[in-house]
Amino acid sequence: MLTTRSAYLFLLPSLALYLLFVGLPILQVFGFSFFAWDNGIIGEFIGLANYARLLGDGVFWTALWHNAIWVVLTLAFPLLAGLVIAAILAERGTNVVRWLGAIYFIPRTIPLVVAGIIWGWIYNPIFGLLNFGLEAVGLGGLGGAWLAQESTALLSLNVVGAWTFFGFCVIIYLAAIQSIDPALYEAASIDGASWWRKFRDLTVPLLRGSTLFLGLYAAIEAMRFFDLVWVTTQGGPGYATEVLTTHIYKTFFLVGDFGYAATLSVVLLIIVLTISAAAFALLRKP
Amino acid sequence: MTKSTRLVQNLVLLVFALYALVPVYLVFLAAIRSEADLFSGPLTLSWPINFANFGRIWTEAGFSTYFFNSVITATSVTLLVLLTAPLAGFAFAKLRFPGKELLFALFLAGLVVPAPSVIVALYGNLQALGLIDNRIGVILPQAALLMPFSVFMMRTVMQEVPDELIEAAVMDGAGLMKLFLTIVVPVVKPGLMSLGLITFLFAWQEYLLPLVVFQTESLKPLTVGAASLQGRYGVDYGGIAAAGLIAFAPLVVLFLAMQRSFVRGLTAGAVK
Are B209 and B132 within 8 A, CB to CB? Predict the structure, then answer.
């Protein structure tokens, strides 16, 4: 391998851009969180006072809880669906794989803003397709104002999140399955293993790396998603769909409390970095 | 495989295909229907297709401008990333230099940084630089936020370049930049294509940055335009559907046309 100092010149453009617009703001946010702010102007140093406020901030804990629920739901549903679908597709013809793979991925190409609008209609209590469909099959009693009532808002939104994400899982899992040695499956077939046995004892363990990657990806996205909530419920009704990012946004742009918004940002950063460190440790372990 | 296993499998494939497609179909349907029969009648395509919604949204609601803005922003971000990330990816994959591990770790950490958590400081910085309500104020931070993923992916792509190719060029006395442009770039062209497509997709989908940076209506992209339409156009569902379709149809078409390249890029970003 070439040892050369011109490597730094190759790094310079991307590194400069990254440090200026991502690295520097992160350091600043850390700094901001130790100060009191008044109308966007930095005030006196108050140490950890902003952090102490977290303890008594019910909205913060509600938001954190919602993010945690979102992590668990995303790990459970789209990942599992992606794995099962990929395992099924792996045994189908190239054209089936190409077409279905494309269809499953289409929702991921749709901006979350638009996804939120479309699903807002499906969930609409007056003309929405979901209530209409439930009525058509005689389950009209189950219908409701899906995004407008506290009991169903978060779950209903998660269905939209899963809609945009499961196709990505299919593609990642499929690529991984296709790189598994087919001889392993043939040997299992000769031993008379059922589809389910092969799935459980071969596919799932051999895809551990992809599962960890997708799990990390899903957990990070679950901690930092914003668009979908903002265009549909803005955290409501009440605080039923409040998440950390909407809490930050409101604290910063609507309340104008820069110091506390920075503190919330630091907490979010620490959480995502901790999750990734844990995932990398797992990934390194054979 | 038994017949019932096969049947269950086909059912799973079908249910998820419907889950993926029905919402897209509905918005398409709403966009090409007239106001009167929007939510009545069967959910089948009506003929002839009614383009009135598109016309109204395109000219009256300013979607020609939003569309143009999305094209400008997404293209600029893509070009900026394509001009910078491959150089860094090459350095990380094929060159040795002091501090390499540390610098790479710095980029890696950026993979998970949530945009909303930097916005608190970024907003003030953009203000100080006079970049609020300015295209540059979205393009530069957007490219910077995409940089960790892009550099990471480019490193994976560059690792595939045979060392012999590079060594042979060095023996011939080629400068590093010349080597990169004449030997490396032609080899990794498919990878660059994938990076360009994925960057374009993400940049087109971006909502938060343009939402907070742009105040002037004539600078806003489709995502911001479509979201604000919901409030402004209240019950003009046909119009909102047409707007949504304008906002995502280019991406769907691009993805379907370049599927192989997209998939290559997505899987190259995944840890092997």
Answer: no
Minimal-distance CA residue of chain A relative to B87:
A10
Do residue A118 and residue B27 have CB atoms under 8 angstroms apart? yes
**ipTM surpassing 0.85:** yes
Provide the shortest C-alpha distance from residue B6 to chain A (in Å). Answer: 9
Q: What is the pLDDT of residues A234-286, one digit of tens each?
A: 898 999 999 999 999 999 999 889 999 999 999 999 999 999 999 888 877 76
Separation CA A270–CA A251 (nearest Å)? 19
Reference A247, options A232, A231, A230; nearest CA is A230
- Residue pair A42/A35 in contact by the 8 Å Cβ criterion: yes
Full set of structural domains in chain A with CATH: 44-284 (1.10.3720.10)
**By CA distance, what is A18's nearest residue in B?**
B144
Q: What is the DSSP string of B32-85?
A: HS-STTSSSS-SS--SS---HHHHHHHHTS-HHHHHHHHHHHHHHHHHHHHHHH
Residue among A72, A79, A88, A69 nearest A208 (CA): A79
For residue A163, give both structure tokens: 């809609």
Query: Hey, where are the domains in chain B?
Result: 64-226+251-269
* Average pLDDT for runs of 10 along chain B of length 272: 87 96 89 67 66 85 92 97 97 93 93 93 95 96 96 93 85 81 92 95 95 94 88 72 90 92 81 50
Sign of dihedral through CA atoms A11, A16, A18, A24? Answer: positive
Q: Which residue has the tokens 């203000």?
A: B127
Query: How many Å apart are CA B269 and CA B258, to the nearest integer?
Result: 17
Q: Which tens digit of pLDDT belongs to each residue from A86-137?
A: 999 998 888 899 999 999 999 999 999 999 988 988 888 877 778 878 887 8
In sequence order, the 6+-apart residues with CB closer than 8 A to the CB of B31 are B53, B54, B238, B241, B242, B244, B245
Chains A and B form CB pairs within 8 A to the count of: 279
Q: Please choose, from the candidates A250, A240, A245, the residue with its C-alpha nearest in 3D space to the C-alpha of residue A145.
A: A240
Going A279 to B268 to B266 to A199, the CA torsion angle's sign is negative
Q: Is the CATH number 3.20.20.190 carried by domain B64-226+251-269?
A: no
Helix (H, G, I), strand (E, B) or coil at A64: helix
